[in-house]
Amino acid sequence: MWIMLVLILPPTAWWLWENSRRETHPVAPGHRPEITLPHEQEFELYHNALSLCSMKSRLCMAELGIPYKGHHIDLIETGSYENISRNFLRVNPAGTVPVLVHNGHPIYESHEQIRYAADFAPAGHAGLMPRDTALRETMERWIDLSSITEDPLEHGQQSAGNAIPGLTVPLFAAMIEQIPYYKIFEGALFHFDKRRPLMFTALKARGIEALGQLRTAVAIHARSRRQMATHLDALERQLEQSGGPWILGDSYSLADVSWLVIFERLVQVDSLQVFLGDTSAREHCTAYWAALRQRPAYREAILDHSHPTIQFGTERLKAAKAANPALREALGG
Q1: Contact status, residue 184 vs residue 76, Cβ threshold 8 Å
Q2: Distance between CA atoms of 114 and 139, rounded to whole angstroms?
Q3: CB within 8 A of 90, min separation 6: which ones?
Q4: Looking at residue 187, what is its pLDDT?
Q5: Which residues, at least 6 apart from 258, have a Cβ–Cβ distance to it below 8 Å?
Q6: Rg of the Cα atoms in the chain
Q7: Closest CA relative to residue 272, chosen from 176, 171, 140
Q8: What is the DSSP secondary structure assignment for residue 122, as one 8-state letter?
Q9: Class (C level, CATH) for 17-120
Q10: Where are the domains of the chain?
Q11: Which of 92, 96, 174, 281 has CA atoms 20 to 30 A from the CA of 46?
Q12: What are the distances in angstroms from CA 145 to CA 155, 302, 325?
């Protein structure tokens, strides 16, 4: 009895103490002037290489020409649970990235960050927000149609952003091969959503080759493919109607910033050819993606922030699909 107490009490006491220092709670989106964080520059951005929303905020800052100090925060997919560390939870108690900080005051949620940053474009840079009321309403609608909302897997029909997590599961399964179990275990101890460490543990234990045998994962992926196809069909019609090359026609806007990262994720999860292949009949989307890749901000905000674990995951996924026709079929090609 005493031996059991000696073995159990110290780690339990440590967990209780550590957990008390990692307080988490939801945060209201938008600019929070009542909060002041330590900062060194006017603008600072806490972001992650894989995070879709982080890519959006980085891209917006690059397009606007706003200099900022970057703080890369690891998620478990890129190496560790830095997003639930004591230090980062002081920046964002919700434990999510990105967080844009302006003069020490945080702006939470990427769709709010890009709207906020657009008001601070330096002289000579486009603000990415049209003055025309009708165009601005259209831009706002297409920002919403690309954004990730709460419980995205349950609302993939609402936006392309919500369809993305289901498509990203195979990439997670490949990337997690490089992450040790003990790092995933930290999430089981302290992450506010216990489903995530459980999912990553299961994916790591089964391996990418076995993903096609997991009926739930395959069903989610198939549903997300259908939803993404619907969203891209809508984008195809919008681009045809606007005359391109951008969502609003001649004016590159925050809507295009929001959609570029959707296409980039499709590249990372090796699914772009599923939606823009020779038989897709989405010629306007194909031309749109080609034009997006030519923008200097694409290299600055996306390519220059490439991460080795993401590169490994994409190549590992491609190799697994090439070696396993059943897996390739389960993932739609």
Answers
A1: yes
A2: 12
A3: 37
A4: 93
A5: 56, 111, 114, 142, 143, 146, 147
A6: 21
A7: 171
A8: P
A9: alpha beta
A10: 17-120, 133-330
A11: 174
A12: 12, 21, 33
In contact, 114 and 254? CB cutoff 8 Å: yes
Is the model's pTM score more than 0.85?
yes
Q: Using one digit for the tens of pLDDT, what is the confidence trace for 22-44?
A: 989 999 999 999 999 999 999 99
Question: In this structure, are residues 273 and 169 in contact, taking their beta carbons and an 8 Å threshold?
Answer: no
Longest dimension (CA), the chain: 77
User: How far apart (Å, rounded) are the C-alpha atoms in residues 275 and 134?
Assistant: 29
Q: What is the pLDDT of residue 125?
A: 79
Q: What is the dihedral of CA 290, 296, 299, 301, to 10 degrees?
A: -110
Whether the CB-CB separation of 92 and 27 falls below 8 Å is answered with yes
Look at the block and give the residue holding tokens 């972001």.
47
Amino acid 17: pLDDT? 82
Helix axes 254-268, 133-144, angle to 10 degrees: 20
β-pairing verdict for 69-72 and 43-47: parallel
Task: Give the per-residue pLDDT at 217.
Answer: 93
* Low-confidence residues of the chain: pLDDT under 50: none
pLDDT of residue 7: 61
How many other C-beta atoms lie within 10 A of the C-beta of residue 146?
A: 27
CA distance 183 to 85: 12
What's the gap between Cα 256 and its chain centre? 16
CA distances from 168 to 13, 147, 189, 299 (A): 37, 15, 24, 22
Contact (CB, 8 A) for 35 and 109? no
Asked if 45 and 99 touch (Cβ cutoff 8 Å), the reply is yes
In this structure, are residues 248 and 255 in contact, taking their beta carbons and an 8 Å threshold?
A: yes
Check whether the bond before 245 is cis (ω within 30° of 0).
yes
31 — alpha (psi -120 to 50), left (phi > 0) or beta? beta
Sequence-distant (6+) residues with CB within 8 A of 331 are 170, 211, 212, 218, 221, 271, 321
